[in-house]
Amino acid sequence: SIRDSMASLLEYESDSCMIVKGKDGFPEKSAAMGFLWLGRSLNYQYDMFSHMLDHNAEPFEAARHAYDRDLKPHLSWPLQKLCQAAMTSLKPKRQKEMLAQIGGFQEECYGNSEDQATRRDLRQMMDSLKPMLCRWKQVFSELDLEAI
Known about the structure:
Elements: H1 6-15, H2 31-54, H3 59-71, H4 77-89, H5 95-103, H6 112-142
Helix pairs in contact: 2-3, 2-6, 5-6
């Protein structure tokens, strides 16, 4: 089928003039718009967890770092202000609390072995996500579409 991969679907939308290569902005109901924001969202999560694990950052600091890097540049000024307000109104979790939840452990039972297992699992998830994100960015770049 001509629409059996992300690249072929985006090419189809471009060929049918639904999206325009080299032009910012896609129709709201296009596959390109869905793929664009799904890619940005996954990239945000990857960078957030990476910052948390590589720099031992607290979750709020890691989320702020990933937001500034991956989402903020693509949002309008009003949406940036809305996101910033939402982030400051959230109760920041401590790293131990968040990792315990991610690992499926009770925080009071979260020790060194549970921490190592959770970090290993997060790394494995990130290792499987990285090639997909690289391919995502490559397809958008090759088709001269917006940056993920």
